[in-house]
Amino acid sequence: MLIVIAVLTLYTTINFAYRFSANKTTLAYETKFLANLVAKYTITPLVFQDKQGAQEALQQLENVKFIDQAILYDNDATLFASYTNTLNLQDQKELEASYLPQGYYQDQLYIKVPVIYKGQHYGDLLLVASTKTMYLKLTDELLDIFFVMLLVIMIAYFIVSRTEAFITKPITKLAKLAQSITKTQDYSLRARKIYNDEVGTLYDEFNVMLTTLQKSGYERDEAEAVSQQHQRHLEQLTEELEQRVQARTKELEDSILLIKETQAQLLEAEKMSALGNLVAGVAHEVNTPLGISITASSIFNNEIKEISQLLKDNALTQSRLTTFLQTFEEASTLLTLNLNRAAELVKNFKQIAVDQSSESLREFELHEYLEEVCSTFTSEFKRHHVTLHLHQNKDTILMHSLPGFFSQVFVNLIQNSLMHAFKDTPHPTISITPVLDGDDVKIIYEDNGAGVAQSVHNNLFEPFVTTKRNEGGTGLGLNITYNLIHQKLKGSIVLDADFHNGARFIVRLKRHISLNFT
User: Fold this and answer.
1) What percent of the chain has pLDDT over 70?
2) Least C-beta-crowded within 10 Å: which of 84, 214, 388, 454?
3) 510-514, long-range: CB within 8 Å, 24+ apart, which pairs?
């Protein structure tokens, strides 16, 4: 009912506003049309200064009820003639023509039009129209609308009152029943149908819904009972599973600890193995210059004994002395060179051995250190007829890193090549190329051997992966190399799968690392 009243009120307001605007527009249009018409009749009196004629022309407006006043001004804005219907001229506010109001002003409409003939301005005509007639008309229309609205409200109230008994009350009763069922959860209640109409059909469907809900409630209770039983069983299984998981976790932790200990032992064993190979290589390398040095020393002894005997016998000639001095000089040079070579080998071995047995940071020049590492394999290279190409970068590359782990990496790579690569290679070659790359250094290690089998590409760096298991291979060398590079040197190593002339590894390392970084 309130909605009906609100809608009618809104309609009335909009309709009244529309009618008010339309009446104002109509009044303005009619007044302006009349002003233009009268202005044409005042042209001749203004031209000939005929005030009587102008007065008669304005007097014709007495038949137009809504015109209160007409005022004619000449070209000098001086009052020329006037007509008054409801107000006297003395009662009007006398204004100059240029200051007369335009439009609606104090319940009146002021319309001023120029009096022009053949482009020449002769004066102005002001018509003052009353708005009382318009307001009276609007009042009558508003009363009509009000009575119509009142009639509609009465009819609507009658319809609503009659409808409430058949629709609203039964629906309200049904709503209260639904609220009661919601509070009590008693789905055995039913709605009592009164009429066999749409509301009665609603009652029937509501009762069917209650029956369905009641049945669903029974099924739900049974399902909840079964669910609780399953839940208890699940909790029991969960508890047993947690106990098993805890036991398995303990076993896994013990296994992981054992694996870590084994890895540490294997790493140490591999380091010792590499160090042993290093010792063997250095021993073999030192053996040659020491043997030559012993030979030179024997020559010294023999020559000195012979010269001493010649001196005793007073049989030393100048030519023999010259020959002795030449032999002595050659043997001395040979002895010095080989002893220096042996000393250099021992020095390199000592430095690399110290580096491999410690985890201390120090600064070293990359190319020089690679030369030291590779020099320990000279005998192995000779035995396998391997040619080494150690390329030097145009810039000096200083490293502040862990030289022990660094040397271990390249010892493992070289040993891996010597063990796996060159069985059927006619001219075996190993190439090491360092490239400066900003704060990193990229070292390309490659050989022209048999390459890496496709079957182990994806797990090459995993532990115990080897193709020489029956020939003494442990499968730990590349795994240890991978872990040293990633964990200790904070770098990376990858196999270049697109390289088909042997094996190529690309090692990328930080040039500067710190203890807290490791």
Assistant:
1) 81
2) 454
3) 510/401, 510/439, 510/440, 511/397, 511/398, 511/399, 511/400, 511/401, 511/439, 511/440, 511/441, 512/399, 512/400, 512/401, 512/439, 513/361, 513/400, 513/401, 513/402, 513/489, 514/361
